[in-house]
Amino acid sequence: MKPKIRLPFDGHYPVTFPFAVIPDDEEIKKKFIQWGIRGHHGIDYRMPQGTEVLSCSRGQVIQVGENGDFGISITLKHKWGISIYAHLKEAKVNVGNKVRVGEVIGLSGKSGAAFGEHLHFGIKLNQADLNNGYLGFTDPSPFF
């Protein structure tokens, strides 16, 4: 199933780190090696802390809170797969909550291994190839 998703925010925020890009920064490269990925496994959007983060699609909250290098993150389960929202300042939902498309689920921040204020957004489709070099994640851009 190919999802049709919305951007996880209202307004315009620039992409600072696209999907699949290999970083120049040696510290980030080391993290990628540690995580077992060959390039960025999501999209980073520069935005001020406290910007409302919205659900990209209807779903259910399956993870909320501290999540290693992702800092405070939220993971939603959808009919088509999962979406993850990372480096948040605050979550506005709890595990088990059902969310509508466009519902406020959190506030952007710079928690975890974040290099500045931004939102990391990623999606993983059902039956994803977990050995694709991106831990099964795929570029969300074609689905907006």
UniProtKB/TrEMBL annotation:
Record field: transmembrane: none
Residue runs in coiled coils: none
Residue stretches making up the M23ase beta-sheet core domain: 39-131
A GO term for molecular function: metalloendopeptidase activity
Superkingdom, natural source: Bacteria
Alphabetized CDD domains for the sequence: M23_peptidase
InterPro entries found in the cross-reference section: Cell_wall_metabolism_enzyme, Dup_hybrid_motif, M23ase_b-sheet_dom
PANTHER family: MUREIN HYDROLASE ACTIVATOR ENVC, PEPTIDASE-RELATED
Stated name of the protein: M23ase beta-sheet core domain-containing protein
